[in-house]
Every structure is written in C-alpha cells, then in structure tokens.
Amino acid sequence: MFRKKINNTSDEKLMQLICSGNQDAFNELYNRYNERLYYYFFRMLGNSPELANDFLQEVFLKIIEKPERFNPKFPFSAWIFTVAHNLCKNEYRRLNVRKEVGHVDENLTGEEEASFKINKDELINRIYESLNDLKHEQRSAFLLFYREGFSINEIAGMLELPKGTVKSRLFYTRKYLEDRFEHLKDEIEL
Amino acid sequence: MKLNFNYIVMNSKELKQLINDDQVGRPDASVKSRLDQAFTLRSATYPIRQNSFSGFISWIFSLKAFGLKTALASLFIAFFLFNKDVTIAPSNPTTLDTTSVNQIIEIDSSLFQSSANIANDSVLL
Can you tell me the distance from the alpha carbon of B30 to that of A41, in angstroms, rounded to the nearest whole number? Predict the structure, then answer.
C-alpha cells in the first residue's frame, strides 16, 4: 500500500521525505532519474560509461548528503539537471575533455561519405561526435531541449543564460550540424 | 524510411524523435549499492528520524492549533473538577490500602506441628 503511495508522490514531496531519512523515497527518486541522468552524463562526457557512472553517483550523493539544499518551491527535475550541468562544467574546467574525446573520422572525405547510406544509430553517434566540437553549454542546451524536453525558459534558468541566448544556441547548433554534414546530401536510412 | 539529413536536423520534431530513440545502456548496479550504503550511514545523522515522536512533541509545545490544545486542556481539568469520584485528597482515600486493614492475627493451631509428628511423617523421610 505504501509502495503505491510512493509511486504517486511528486518528486518534490519525495525530496521532503528523503530529508526525514525515508529510503523508499530515495529509491523511487533514483528509479525515476537514474537512466535520464546517465544518458546526460554519457553524452556530455565523451560517451564514457565510467565517467557517466561516476557522475551519476556524485549527483545522488549530493542528494543524500545535503537534501535540504533543494527548494521544494521549484521543480525537482530542473534542479537535478542544473546540478548535473554544473558538475559537467566543473569537469570541463578541470580537464580539457574536448581534446580527449573522439571526433568524426576526418579521414573520410565528403564524397566518400556521400557514397554510402548511414543508419539511425550511426547518425546519432555522428551527431554527438560533432557536438563534442561545440562548447559544453551548447551541448547541454541541446540535450536538455531535445532529449529531456525542457522549455527554453527552464533551460535559461538552469544554464543561467538569457532566453534569447538559449534560443540562438539551439539554432546555431542545428545550423552547425547541417553545415557539418552538408556533404551528406544522400538520403539516410531510418 | 528514407529522409534527407538536413530535413532531420532542421526539423525540431524529427530531431527530437531521433534523439529520444537513442539508447546508451543502463547505469552500473554497483552505483546503486554504493548509494544505498551511503544513505544508510547518512540517515543515522538526520535530525528527524523515521518512526520518531519528535514531530508530535514539537507540535504539542508549539503555538500551532493553540485554541484546540487549550480546549482539550480545559476539558481535562473540567473532568476532574466535576467528577467527585476521582479525587486526590489524602483524607478521603478511594482505593484499598492493605496497610490500613486491621486484621486480627489469631494463632491457628492447625499450623502447629509437634516434633513427634514431623518424625512420623513418612513424606519427610
């Protein structure tokens, strides 16, 4: 009966329960967010499962250690992804990840690439590999908008940027991808 | 289905669908077990613990629902004022006190046993 009640509880209420030491509430929150955050870290940190696992643990440790830092007046999902974004930002400051992560295979010329059709998985991988060349804020905005479905307003709050900046960054990211694969005029098998 | 790449990238809906269909696997199970351990250690230091009465006690001594608490206290006092059977006056005890019962202790000869009887009692042999 209690399990059913926990399932229907909002994220914000679960955080309040965690503050009083309720482990069921913590488990429920973990179940709701672990895959979403794992995906975010995986794509933000150079497609590394090890880093994604480490950062996922770091985010939830923050919840365990200082649950009172969350303000229940604000949406939990926006707060947790802000924490995740800040962790990535710190990591980028500490390490110059952009130089270490893989890039699109530069050996392939435009003509060679255009000569074969690529499938959906390969297309996604190529998109993310290309995004590694962009600033982490752009990549973060891209993930938060297209994967997590946050609004421009929410993303602006999370990244501490004006709304217009977020909009233009999303537009330029799409434009960048279009230019990056301009030679890929051939149709893609989806 | 065949689509032009530029169409996918510049079409927000198509791009969203493409990104949402992407799967990168699940987090390691060891992450959860480490978090569970951390939670157990941390929960011992939380100010409010599960199954605690501290919430009730703090409510009792707070100014919340002051009127209700005053009314309950008044009822409690009124009960003792108007119920004559319940008294705490020492001059009028309402309970039986065995120390105040004056019972005459008489010598019961049936309890006596002579030394001869004891000696003849085969049960004691």
Answer: 17
Point out the residue among B22, B25, B27 whose CB comes nearest to the CB of A124: B22
What residue of B is the nearest CA neighbor of A63? B39
Angle at CA of residue A136, ends A172 and B30, nearest 5°:
135
Does the complex come out with an ipTM higher than 0.90?
A: no
For A108-190, give the CATH class: mainly alpha
Q: In chain A, where are the structural domains located?
A: 1-101, 108-190
Helix (H, G, I), strand (E, B) or coil at B2: strand
DSSP annotation of B85? T
Within 58-117 of B, beta carbons closer than 8 Å to A belong to none
Closest partner residue to A35 among B26, B38, B39, by Cβ? Answer: B26
Residues of chain B contacting A35 with CB distance shorter than 8 Å: 26-27
User: pTM for the full model?
Assistant: 0.66
Locus of tokens 């992804």: A81
CATH classification code of A1-101 = 1.10.1740.10
CB burial string A28-59: b at 16+ within 10 A, e below:
bbbebbbebbbbbbbbbbbbbbebbbbbbbeb
- A61 contacts B38? CB cut-off 8 A: yes
Q: How far is B80 from chain A (nearest CA, A)?
A: 39
CA A135 to chain CA centroid, Å, is 14
Nearest to A80 by CA among A3, A144, A5, A171: A144
Above 90 in pLDDT, residue A152?
Answer: yes
